[in-house]
Amino acid sequence: MPPFLAYDDKGPRNTRIPLLLIHGHPFDRTLWDPQRDAFAASRRVVVPDLRGYGTSPVTPGRVPLARFAADLEDLLDALDVRTCVVAGLSMGGQIAMECWARLGADRVRGLVLADTFPAPETPQGVRDRNAMADRLLREGMRGYADEVLEKMVAPHAAPEVKAHVHRMMTATDPRGAAAALRGRAERPDYRPVLAEVTVPALVVVGADDAYTPVSDAEAMHALLPDAALRVIGAAAHLPNLERPREFNGALEEFLARVDAGV
Question: N or C end of the chain: which has fewer CB within 10 A?
């Protein structure tokens, strides 16, 4: 049976550990184009569209983070990827935490958490996410995309980066975005999960991220038993697109360590 998710599967099958890249909301797998292109030269890189995003099928209603993680496990099984480094940004970072809880060290050899946080939703946050889901279903994505663009990326970001981010957001199916928002509102507390991570981790954050500020990244870094923290200057919520050279440098250093088994 073919995989449920749309995906890119690039790079050589060699001794280097494959890399799984998980995008955030409301984006698609092209969020990771600078990383896919850079790292597929030397290792296998798998980049899916999450359920409800990009060209993957939409499930209306509510999609919890555990469902996203189960989809990714099914994709790895279908592609015969037995072990990998799991990297996620924003909501994708929370899905990466869920993947660790689900798969453990037998399959996850390293964890990259970018511009994300592990705490559960607050009561107000639950209301806000459900209200936003209602709004997206009612109005579509464009108004929301216009409002948040210069919070997703810094105002001084390159015009082509802004255009890419806006295009991803407006192309997202509102039903998929709403279902993810409702599921994410009910997410568990991943802080105890992070405290038990037994593999190397990398925490990355944009210095100007207003959604998940540096203080959140520092707190998450402190929870992880074996983690490095990298703050990317002159970037907001999407440093992998805003400052790809700096982001890729941090990721390359981390992957070299995981490959070496240090």
Answer: N
